Amino acid sequence: MVDGEAGFILRVSKHRQYGDYVRTQIRIDSVDVEHLSFLKSKLGGSLLGPYQNRKEWSPFYVWVLTSPMEIRDLLLRVHPHLLVKKDQAKIILDWFSIRGNRAGKRGSKIPSDELELIARLRKLARKGKRI
What we know:
The protein is an alpha+beta fold. The chain has helices at residues 33-43, 68-78, 86-99, 112-125, and strands at 7-15, 19-30, 46-51, 60-65. It has a 4-stranded antiparallel sheet.
């Protein structure tokens, strides 16, 4: 489920008081709340929902992991076994290597090497046909 359905996210967020910072998350949207509940019980994180974008669509739920250290630990465990998301996981692990213990800290200028990783992950995560 993590390899096929998960979204690996690394993005710049803004905070009025503390300035820009990089945040990371792993999220899975699904109509199968039982699978997401299982993930929450085993990996932590939050289970959100139900949401329904359109009347004719089924309600869906979202499992999200936002703790930088939990994300790092999970990616270290699953990275060798990933097929579809291996490159995306590697980018986030590279970001953790650059940031070290500063992951999730706010208030410092975001270095260009981190911005480069964010751009690479965004490009990999695009949906649709790649030309």
